[in-house]
Amino acid sequence: MTLTDQVALVTGASRGIGRAIGLALAAEGAAVVLTARDVEGLDSARAEIERHGGTCVTVVADLADRGAAREVFDAAISELGRVDILVNNAGIGSSADPRPVVDYDDSFWELTLYVNLTVPYLLSKYAVGPMIERRHGRIIQIASIAGKIGTFHGAAYSASKHGLLGLTRSLAIETAGLGVTVNAICPGPVNTRTNDSHTAYHAKRLNKSVAEYEAALTPIGRRLEPSEVAPLALYLASPEARVVTGQAYNIDGGALMA
Fold first, then answer.
1. Does residue 154 sit in the same domain as residue 210?
2. Considering only Cβ atoms within 10 Å of each terminal Cβ, which end of the chain, N or C, has fewer?
């Protein structure tokens, strides 16, 4: 129970990677605030945490709405008093509207950059001041290997994740030595609802079956499971990671080795 007496805020936590991280943090003793749009998914996650004796608060919110990030953070403070661990996981994938740049929808570009980059910036900004005052805090950004390479028909997603890594490194420099660490996790293809759409789109584009396309996504021959990403977040949130900051860790089945 390495995170006893810690409070964690996890966005996009009703399913997928966010849910897995929320459950993992709670299992290590953290009180967790989970936020997402999906009421049913949040209720299910909270029930699982409480069934194992954990503390969980849920906040239903659409972080695409201006002002929602502030409301979510204030709700976390109101319910549990502080945020020691911030996990910025909520995001929009490229498969919601895949197009080449020449045909890109400007409104989708702006929405993607707002949710994937501006919202993590805002939540990090709200959290980091009190963390510095307490000389303790962990900020974990869920980026993507698309933050290190280009994405075919997904310019907004790739640009937003590149930007998220820049935010991570800049904030890490500013907080180094102040008891706060800031790191990013860069998953490859993960078995989530969002990635299902991405996989189906590109399989069809390349005239392959979904199974055939999926098997070639990584050297290990499959997508990752959300539960295989969560342990890295758990480590970065732990006391043992006190000297780790400004890093962007790939967890991708070997998809990006260079």
1. no
2. C
